[in-house]
Automatic annotation (TrEMBL):
Belongs to the COX16 family. The keyword Protein transport does not apply. Its main location: mitochondrion. This is Cytochrome c oxidase assembly protein COX16, mitochondrial. It is a single-pass membrane protein.
Amino acid sequence: MGVFQNQKYRSSAAAGTFAAKYRAVMAKRPFLLFGLPFMAVIVGGSFILTPATAIRYERHDRKVRQMSREEELSVGRGKRKVDIREEYYRLAAKDLDNWEQKRVKRLEGESDGVLE
């Protein structure tokens, strides 16, 4: 049995083409085929994700903002005073033994949990 060659046969006419030169360069420097596109994706992704992350934090800052002193003082004005004894007697006066279970109205298309 004869020994097969390790490389494919390429005619001398195809040796001078752009594809042959490109193939030879890629065989010598695999970084151009694998490493360079990978690095380009990493660096490009960083530039693309930076504004997206900034938008995320700006939206959070709009929701959570610092209150001014006047807003802090006006927040607690509408509340009623709570006395623990008064709340106890108010709840004790309720009739807790006589109650009826009511189902909450579901949104359209939402399962109500009743098996048919």
